[in-house]
Design brief:
By secondary structure, the protein is mostly beta strands. The chain folds into 6 domains: about 100 residues, Immunoglobulin-like (Sandwich); about 100 residues, Immunoglobulins (Immunoglobulin-like, Sandwich), CATH 2.60.40; about 90 residues, Immunoglobulin-like (Sandwich); about 90 residues, Immunoglobulin-like, CATH 2.60.40.10; about 80 residues, Immunoglobulin-like (Sandwich); about 220 residues, Neuraminidase, CATH 2.120.10. Helices cover about 5% and strands about 50% of the residues. The protein has 1 helix and 65 strands. The strands form 15 sheets. Strands 38, 40, 41, 43, 44 and 45 form a 6-stranded mixed beta sheet that branches. The chain has a 5-stranded mixed beta sheet with strand order 2-9-8-4-5, with no helix packed on it. The protein has a 5-stranded mixed beta sheet with strand order 11-18-17-13-14, with no helix packed on it. It starts with a helix and ends with a strand.
Length: about 725
């Protein structure tokens, strides 16, 4: 109790003395600070304990605290919290300062007296982290392998190390020329050529200048350098004689145990007996390749160093395997062709021909002609097709190239020529027949014409440039003789068939009847006459006469009346086209082609005398008059010999007296056909170009047409047509 009173009194006395006595300043001291170790990243507040901290200490005008680390600038507290004369709190308002040890100083601002605690605050950083390194590998012959390292917490000049993994003794390679580009990016160089930079897996770590080691490492692979191929054995053949082939590869970075692969796709030539010599520059690998019967062509060469960390290298198409011999051409067939057609089945004879060979025709300065459908029948024979149509003319080399690129070097020549002038020719069938006559014309021209011009001789033409259409069928409708010709041409010239082919179109005459001014013209020589053309022309009592008046080849009607002829040019009724006086009443009319030229003209028979007109005009022009026959005979006219000229004859009581010329005299042929009271009728009944005889027997309408002008007419045609009293006529009605 007493002690307590004494203590309280002493305090009071002390306070009074401070109030009345002059102040004597005492320098502050620091006995401790907290924290003693601070990590960048949080607010920096320091708790300081000591003595003689002035009162009140409400700000830096009374007391202040500084941090000092030489040679850096002092760091002054922004705020002071006074707890007592022995304890204050200094707030610096920062979260990061330079790492290392700092001195802490408390300053009495009234007299600048101070107290310092040396190395009272130790500042350190967060450990750095590593995210990636690029590249992630390097070759152990590189003295300056550049890298970029990405992470966090980098500052100053960190130390970057490569550390070996699983390699004894453990080896570190420290990066050089490191540059801290930012707190997340560092670049530098590794010297991987140092002794000990063994191929394998390594790790990357980093230590900041504050001693902090990265919290993680990154993998880094060191490889041996890839081998290179500078040269190798370039070619060989696949013959048994030359296998195995001694094969040499030259280059760099070949290691003991290295191997060589020779490949073409999935095909690999067996190799063995490798000898590696790395002491030579370039390095050398010698081996044996079993090339016998291997597929020809280009092969890749691959050098394979041993072990998982040794890159391989491949030289593409570095080796070519050939057949043991190039193809050789002895002869070709054919050796020439015109450039108007292609060749199918071109033959090449020689040796060493292989499957998939290519055949070309070659001429300097021109595009090759490449054969199609190439068939290597044997090693001695190739057949193929050549597109020579339209090809340039000249001498071409025939070249065979096998699939190993070896080509024939013999100058076997093939000539492409211009086509010669075409020579026109054709055949026609039939060349004679009854109208309408269909004739097939077939071209047989040579030397490759490209244009065909047909002239049929009847005023009709047919032209074509299409080979498939060059043959043609033409119909002749008019009786006569025609000269058919063919003209063919190509780029070289043309030719025409001379004199051409004669086409003879014959009439197949039909029966007709005249009855009291009406004509009944049959369409065929059968019963009833087929389709009958009936028309009125003339009148009762007229005598019918028919002929080719207009020169068209068609027989048309006419009538004779009291010395006057009325001729019509069509087989229809109507007015006469030609009317003229010739003869006299009682004469019997006839008509014919008396001279073999022009159209038919009339004539009359008068009691054994013929009067043949030369024109269908009054008086008949120049008249041929001669005695033949006797009164009572019936005059007839026809081309009895097929000469094209009409001559006369007479019919007397079933007997025919035919004359082969229009003169008097003895008959040239006499024969019986018919009987008394039959009416004669003539015509070319079978279309053989010769007029045959016939009779009409009105009592029963029988028509008998002879097959030839001989006794009883040969093979005859019989049919019923007309009625008693009809007058028969014969002709080609068209």
């Amino acid at each position: 109790m007493t002690n307590t009173k004494f203590t309280n009194a002493a305090i009071v006395i002390g306070v009074l003395m401070l109030l009345v006595l002059p102040v004597c300043a005492v320098a502050p001291t620091i006995t401790s600070t907290s924290p003693g170790r601070w990590e960048n990243g949080t607010d920096l507040n320091i708790y300081i304990e000591g003595t003689y901290f002035p009162f009140p200490a409400s700000g830096p005008d009374k007391i202040n605290v500084t941090l000092n680390q030489s040679p850096l600038e002092n760091l002054t507290a922004l705020g002071i919290t006074y707890t007592s004369t022995t304890r204050i709190i200094a707030s610096f308002g920062v979260k990061s300062i330079h790492f290392g040890d700092w001195n802490v100083t408390v300053i009495n601002m009234s007299d600048n007296s101070n107290g310092t605690a040396s190395n009272a605050l130790s500042v350190y950083n967060n450990p750095p982290t590593l995210t990636s390194i690029s590249p992630e590998w390097g070759l152990n012959n590189s003295a300056a392998e550049f890298f970029n390292l990405i992470g966090t917490g980098f500052f100053g000049t960190p130390v970057v190390n490569l550390s070996s993994v699983g390699i004894t003794p453990n080896v570190n390679i420290t990066a050089t020329n490191c540059q801290t580009i930012s707190s997340t990016h560092i670049s530098g160089y590794f010297d991987l050529s140092k002794v000990g930079a063994t191929a394998g897996q390594w790790t990357v770590n980093l230590t900041n200048p504050d001693g902090n080691l990265s919290t993680s490492t990154l993998p880094f692979t060191i490889w041996c350098p890839s081998p290179t191929i500078a040269s190798n054995t370039q070619s060989g053949d696949n013959s048994i004689v030359h296998s195995p082939l001694t094969f040499v590869v030259r280059g760099t970075n070949y290691r003991s145990g290295a191997m060589v692969n020779i490949t073409n796709g999935s095909i690999q030539i067996p190799t063995h007996g490798f000898t590696v010599d790395s002491s030579l520059l370039p390095n050398r690998i010698t081996l044996f390749a079993d090339t016998a019967n291997q597929r020809v062509g280009f092969y890749n060469i691959t050098v394979i160093n041993p072990g998982p960390l040794y890159n391989n290298t491949t030289s593409v198409n570095a080796f070519q395997l050939f057949y043991s011999a190039a193809p050789y051409i002895n002869s070709v067939d054919p050796i020439t062709i015109a450039n108007t057609s292609n060749i199918s089945g071109f033959q090449i004879f020689g040796t060493g021909f292989k499957d998939n060979a290519v055949v070309v025709l070659n001429q300097t300065g021109l595009t090759n002609i490449t054969a199609t459908s190439v068939d290597v029948n044997t090693e001695n024979l190739i057949t193929c097709n050549l597109t020579t149509k339209g090809a340039p003319t000249g001498i071409w080399k025939v070249i065979v190239t096998n699939n190993d690129t070896q080509a024939s070097n013999t100058d076997k020549l093939f000539t492409i020529t211009s086509p010669p002038v075409p020579v026109a020719s054709f055949n026609a069938a039939p060349i004679s027949g009854i109208a309408p006559l269909n004739v097939q014309f077939n071209d047989t021209s040579v030397n490759d014409p490209v244009v065909w011009n047909w002239s049929f001789g009847d005023g009709q033409w047919y032209n074509t440039t299409t080979f498939a259409n060059r043959n043609v069928t033409h119909q002749y409708t008019i009786v006569g003789t025609y000269n058919a010709r063919l003209t063919v041409s190509n780029a070289i010239g043309s030719s025409t068939t001379i004199p051409g082919t004669t086409i003879t179109v014959l009439k197949n005459d039909k029966i007709g009847l005249f009855r009291n001014g009406t004509f009944f013209l049959a369409s065929n020589n059968t019963g009833g006459g087929g389709i009958v053309n009936a028309f009125i022309y003339g009148q009762a009592g007229d005598l019918p006469v028919v002929g080719n008046w207009a020169g068209t080849g068609t027989t048309t009607p006419g009538v004779f009346r009291n010395g006057i002829f009325y001729l019509r040019n069509t087989n229809t009724g109507g007015a006469a086209n030609t009317v003229f006086n010739y003869g006299q009443a009682g004469d019997k009319p006839i008509a014919g082609h008396w001279t073999g030229v022009g159209s038919d003209t009339v004539g009359v028979f008068r009691d054994g005398t013929f009067f043949l007109a030369s024109s269908n005009t009054p008086g008949g022009g120049s008249v041929n008059t001669f005695i033949y026959g006797q009164p009572g005979d019936v005059a007839v006219a026809g081309d009895w010999t097929g000469s094209g000229t009409t001559t006369i004859g007479v019919f007397r009581n079933g007997v025919w007296y035919l004359k082969y010329s229009n003169t008097g005299g003895v008959a040239d042929t006499t024969f019986t056909y018919g009987m008394l009271n039959d009416k004669p009728v003539v015509g070319d009944w079978n279309g053989d170009g010769i007029t045959e005889v016939g009779i009409y027997r009105g009592s029963n309408g029988l028509v008998a047409l002879a097959g030839s002008n001989i006794q009883n007419g040969g093979t005859s045609t019989y049919f019923i047509y007309g009625q008693d009293g009809d007058l028969p006529v014969g002709g080609y009605w068209g």
